[in-house]
Amino acid sequence: MEVFVRFLDLERKQIGHLVILGDLFEFFFGFRDFSPTEKPSAFTDYLPVFHQLQSLYREGIHIKYFEGNHDFFLHSFFSEQFGMEIEVYPEGCDETLEGKRAFIAHGDLSNPRQWTYRTFRKVLKNSFTYRLIHLAGPRMSRRVARKLSDMSYQKYHNDQDVPPPPFKAFAHQKFLEGFEIVILGHSHFPEEAEERVHGRRCFYYNVGDWMVHRSYLRFTPPDQFRLERYDRG
Fold first, then answer.
1. Which residues are 103's β-sheet partners?
2. Which residue in 216, 110, 210, 211 sits closest to 165, CA to CA?
3. pLDDT tens-digit profile of 151-208?
4. Rounded to an integer, what distance in angstroms lies between the CA atom of residue 82 and that of residue 206?
5. Alpha-carbon span 22 to 7, nearest angstrom
6. Neighbours of 180 (CB within 10 A)
7. Is 162 exposed, middle or buried (0-12, 13-18, 19+ CB in 10 A)?
8. Residue 47 CA neighbour count, 13 Å, CB half
9. Are strands 200-207 and 190-197 parallel, antiparallel or unpaired?
10. Of the listed ranges 58-62, 103-107, 156-160, the one predicted with least confidence
11. Quick one: CA torsion of 173, 126, 48, 151, rounded to 10 degrees?
């Protein structure tokens, strides 16, 4: 967390828009009774990030947050708890970047063959489960989430040393639908690719992850994308 906060601080003069593609935290749920001043809190270690985002927001930086498979019920959390009007997307969205049609999402739904995960996701991300999480409270919910996260990581990431192919296949399908840019996360592998579809130059980017690769995607209008890594400590 400290490294990420330091990175945002160093970049703040260059940022006009900050887009977070989810799973910034091990687990986070937008509890209605969350208190930024409560100590100790189940999420005390997250507060430096929230305060940094709040600082960036007050400087006029636009922030968008795409919920991942570790983020839940954030639609009004930032405004109610920190006074930030952050755009929250539970799913992906269709954007226009300098006249080009772009699809942006966390990326956990990129593999249509992961029926087990898709079913589990529907069970987690619904109003009934959200009510149960509220009843369980922050501490209990975070303990359960840690166990589920460990199981998920062992199943989907530990044995991989190359980017999973479904992400590129998903991007290709989006290109066929008319998108020229696809930006995803979730895979934990920084990746970029270009292909021509119906005479159009199309670009796919995966921002990778912060914990291992310290990777991120920089967009400089009108059309420059750079997949970079933060390596200052």
1. 94, 182
2. 110
3. 655 555 555 667 889 999 999 999 999 999 999 999 999 999 999 999 999 999 999 9
4. 29
5. 17
6. 17
7. exposed
8. 12
9. antiparallel
10. 156-160
11. -70
Question: What are the tokens at 101?
Answer: 């049609």
How far, in Å, CA of 16 to CA of 68, rounded?
Answer: 23
Asked if the model's pLDDT at residue 89 lies above 70, the reply is yes
Q: How far apart are CA 6 and CA 113, in angstroms?
A: 39
Q: How far from each other are the two terminal CA atoms of the chain, in whole angstroms? A: 13
CATH code for the domain in which residue 170 is found: 3.60.21.10
Residue 105 and residue 146: Cα distance in Å, rounded? 23
Nearest partner of 63 among 83, 87, 81, 80, judged by Cα: 87
What residue numbers bound the domain in which 118 lies?
2-229
Tally of CB atoms within 10 A around 226: 11
Share of the chain above pLDDT 90, in %: 61
Q: How far apart are CA 45 and CA 35, in angstroms?
A: 13
Comparing 177 with 147, the larger pLDDT belongs to 177
Q: How many domains does the chain have?
A: 1
Q: Please, what sign has the CA dihedral across residues 192, 173, 95, 123?
A: negative
> Could you tell me the pTM of the whole model?
0.89
Dist. CA 216–CA 17, nearest whole Å: 13
State yes or no: pLDDT of 63 exceeds 80.
yes
78 Ramachandran zone, left/alpha/beta (phi>0; psi -120 to 50): alpha
